[in-house]
Amino acid sequence: MSGAKPIFIAVVGVGGVGKAFLGQLEQLRKRLQQQNAPIDIRLILVRRSNKQILQKEWEGLDIQNVLTQLDSSTEPVPPFEETVDHLTTAPGNVVLVDNTSSDTLAATYPSVLHKGISIVTPNKKAFSSTHDLWTSIFSSAANPTPLHSSPSPKPTAHPGYIFHESTVGAGLPVLSTLADLLATGDQITKIEGVFSGTMSFLFNAFMPSLSPTEGGTFSAEVTKAKNLGYTEPDTRDDLNGLDVARKLTILARLVGLPIASPNAFPVRSLIPQELESCTSGDDFLQKLPDYDARMHELKTAAAAEGKLVRFVGSIDVVAAEVKVGLERFEPSHPIAALKGSDNIINLYTKRYGSNPLIIQGAGAGAEVTAMGVTADLLRVIRLLH
Amino acid sequence: MSGAKPIFIAVVGVGGVGKAFLGQLEQLRKRLQQQNAPIDIRLILVRRSNKQILQKEWEGLDIQNVLTQLDSSTEPVPPFEETVDHLTTAPGNVVLVDNTSSDTLAATYPSVLHKGISIVTPNKKAFSSTHDLWTSIFSSAANPTPLHSSPSPKPTAHPGYIFHESTVGAGLPVLSTLADLLATGDQITKIEGVFSGTMSFLFNAFMPSLSPTEGGTFSAEVTKAKNLGYTEPDTRDDLNGLDVARKLTILARLVGLPIASPNAFPVRSLIPQELESCTSGDDFLQKLPDYDARMHELKTAAAAEGKLVRFVGSIDVVAAEVKVGLERFEPSHPIAALKGSDNIINLYTKRYGSNPLIIQGAGAGAEVTAMGVTADLLRVIRLLH
């Protein structure tokens, strides 16, 4: 590895995605070493809420044992800003990998980028909160417009790059494809799809495409999905539609709509109004069966038309309309025919005409989410190299 | 544009795709200029079989009028090698855009790359002919392995980069997605899909998914497809399966199978053996109805199982088996439910499990093919910048 250029990796967040990312990082490091690549990947920071290991000699932590090390660490945890300032003294380029879903961390991105540190992240908060934060992030980055694949003027101060493929559809190539379409001059007219693995699983069970009448009651399917680990610990965090609203906010901004926040457009919540005051997720799940009749009615109405109910998000770019809610589809429509917990994203463009460019597959899960992050890391490495 | 770094573009081939590419290039040039980007795109060569315009002062041709200029040009057309040698004297990086499907041009790629010129192309010949040519191309390029998205040692002599997204699925993000999957350490287990817009259109008409019995006879649908402009001028060039075999050769090599040539695995030709000696495409089309009974039998057999016949290519990576032929699918299968002349590519990987990553949409057409070429050009510009 003599002569190989070091690239310093700082990881924050070591939950499911963080752990999977560290596994992929170690694989990548080994592969580059085997190939005698002129790049030397060095993990120099691992941090979670109450623990941190910082490799102050810039030599690279042992990725395979770093989590055990972190568990037993008694190192004091300095404020994040202090750690960032230390990172700026690294003898080479630094990439921050934010595997959290923290608002606080997202708010520091502009300053991190200004300091020349690049960021790759699946954290939706940074790109789907206020429009001000979004503008601030992209005006601080070396890829200053959201059309991040088009070459653009680099300010002389060398700010960092930022990529966030995994914020929509996990590792599915959604944002990179959108960037290529825009950069080559295509016009996006509409985006429509199923953007939540949980909602996909839930509706494929509630009203299966091949046997629409065989699904259980809505509350029974919610409970089943929770027991199988397909939902957030509190199912209301899926049913309120906010996760999908955040993804649509990200996509809508990328195609040029200045969406103020994920609350700035109609989002259908599947939490009955009467249950909005429930104090716990368990309490909510217990009372949900009382409202099954409403969802059953929607199912019956769709079935009467020979259609299926699905929870979809859509962006009508031409009319500048974004919405999240229940829609009906013919059984042969790709959105209705979706399997398991897959996501599907239909990109309607001028060049592609009436048949959209479709990207489909698992849109959640630690390994595929981490894959999007690792692919973004490789993008940054190529740009920095 | 003062201070902007020039990038010199040399275009060979100005048919449908070439013309669409020139349109996109002009759009891109204008957009970069408007954004004050530090890149100055200059078209310096336009060449077709019997005409050529070379801008010897490196100032950039007027893209909008260049085809009229080419038509009326009386400039002598030097051998391609001579023109390449001249391009190497450009005061900056040169990208050759090969919009032909020429074998001869493909054979020059190794030497073009060696001379420091990058290549972007939808020309399948270079990547699907002999394995020797393929090896020679990638050992000459700055991205020396087919896993072209992984950072790799750059030889000191600065060879060119090569990208060829549009050789499979036109502008659909097939090769870039495959490259990301491989570069991040996923394992591809199987690739299956409909890789020909013509075959897609033909079988969707011959045996429609929503009304399998309503299609016309095979020969009638072939004639209809030809009259609508969905086939090659000689329909046998589609029906022999070679186009699909070339695309599978490209994909199989990318996932590590050392396929010798597109003839090295089973390819089902839809040309009846008795008609292989037809002297013209018209003669062939006239006699094709005599063999409709065979295709009708296949259709009936599939229908008896409640399935649909489709013309698919598949690569079983684990068993190292590649084949092109007719397969049966349930109507709800994404391959059967395909619309119009769309392509569909199913990537089965270790991380994605039993539900593949699916990419679907128009896989032919001048604008979408040119889009893949333009996106590749942007990739090269980012790497060179």
UniProtKB/TrEMBL annotation, chains A, B:
Pfam families: Homoserine_dh (PF00742), NAD_binding_3 (PF03447). It is an enzyme of class 1 (oxidoreductase). Its EC number is 1.1.1.3. Residues 13-141 form the Aspartate/homoserine dehydrogenase NAD-binding domain. The keyword 4Fe-4S does not apply. L-homoserine binds at E232. NADP(+) binds at G13, V14, G15, G16, V17, G18. Residues 173-378 form the Homoserine dehydrogenase catalytic domain. Keywords: Amino-acid biosynthesis, Methionine biosynthesis, NADP, Oxidoreductase, Threonine biosynthesis. It catalyses: L-homoserine + NADP(+) = L-aspartate 4-semialdehyde + NADPH + H(+). Pathway: Amino-acid biosynthesis; L-threonine biosynthesis; L-threonine from L-aspartate: step 3/5; Amino-acid biosynthesis; L-methionine biosynthesis via de novo pathway; L-homoserine from L-aspartate: step 3/3. Its cofactor is a metal cation. PANTHER family: HOMOSERINE DEHYDROGENASE (PTHR43070:SF5), PTHR43070. Belongs to the homoserine dehydrogenase family. Catalyzes the conversion of L-aspartate-beta-semialdehyde (L-Asa) to L-homoserine (L-Hse), the third step in the biosynthesis of amino acids that derive from aspartate (the aspartate family of amino acids), including methioinine and threonine, the latter of which is a precursor to isoleucine; production of homoserine leads to a branch-point in the pathway as it can either be O-phosphorylated for processing to threonine, or O-acylated for processing to methionine. This is Homoserine dehydrogenase. The lineage of its organism: Eukaryota, Fungi, Dikarya, Ascomycota, Pezizomycotina.
